[in-house]
């Protein structure tokens, strides 16, 4: 079958007798309801056709994006018009009663990717009227000046296509978040839970791939409703422009007149003569027409006035309303008179106030820019303010230019304990543990939390090489976040375990 069967040229005869919906004038919002009803009726075949089109594209984009979940989702989102074209063509055929099964899916797929679809992948991709204007490209086959004029005429129907696209984007996000929350809450606590933050903003983790696949599923669910709603808006606008409802009504009237009349012309003539012969016998004599005596024009005028004055022809109604009282040109006695120079002074004051506000706004913008430039200087290091606090053993690793030796850490920790500075002792011991951890091999990323540092150590080191890192991390978390100071006995035990840990690591080093 040639691809010309898919085209609806402007002004060409459309077989409205086979259309599956009632052709009548509709508002734009009622046209949206019609499109949603069509999508509900044809959802399963449209959904299968969407996957038939999207799966090859998804596989190709997966290799082109280097298996990066975020870039893969962005590529699929940008190529959505490729998946919507076959759906539009399938709906345009099903609207006129054509059965399009699995065997015709490849044909629909090829016909839905013409060269005219390229603008919807380039400069018209972010347009908010895509579903409404795509039938002009795929069904009417217009291009050049004719297509631009046709789009101008079709766009005069209102802003409902814009709202359709905007609400469709919001429904995609809502349905996507609902799927992620359903997976998060329905998975038992004993199994690995989905990290919602990683599913939304993560990169490379399994949670991010779950989020991307959920969004792809949302694409497939929203696409039939979006395409059918835009197609219904196109049908509504074309019905208004070309009066399809009147054409269909005239066709029905023509079909009714073309039915068999039942009597031949000769029989109808004989019936008419019989009716004329029987009429004087049926009508009573008092009802038959009698000549009316001629009336004088004055009498006829008076009779007409009497008839019009009757209750059947007219009535009088009184209406009360407020109207301004007419006044003379004289000014009011007590009307206030402004000084002669006051209006000019007020205008000058308003102008000065306007410029003062403008200068103040510019000054605030300049001040904020200076503050931001001082806080963010990628080309030069930020100058550190001099620290005027007295030196403390707890800050030995911070204040030293090159840090302190690990052998000096026990002395500094005991000095903090003698000064009853448990927080300083635990902080110094924890930072020294992180320094020692870096020497063992596991990289500690910048900005990592305590839990992330411990998780990195557990993944990359054997259990015997962790030493007191786990209890030390727990003690520091309780102190930093719950404000629970450790006991002196616990600190002494942690210090002894830390010393054995560093000595064992130094002894095992080559």
In short:
The chain has 20 helices and no strands.
Would you spell out the secondary-structure blueprint of this structure?
Blueprint lengths: L27 H14 L1 H22 L4 H10 L1 H15 L10 H7 L18 H9 L5 H11 L5 H27 L9 H6 L4 H37 L1 H14 L7 H18 L14 H13 L32 H34 L20 H4 L9 H10 L3 H19 L9 H11 L8 H13 L6 H21 L2
Features:
0% strand, 20 helices, 510 residues, mainly alpha, 62% helix, disordered N terminus
Which stretches are low in confidence, meaning pLDDT under 50 for 5 or more residues running?
Answer: 1-7, 377-402
Strand-pairing-aware structural class: mainly alpha
Radius of gyration: 43 Å
Mean pLDDT: 75
| Largest beta-sheet characterization | none
Helix share bin: 55-70%
What's the total number of strands?
Answer: 0
Dominant shape: elongated
Number of helices: 20
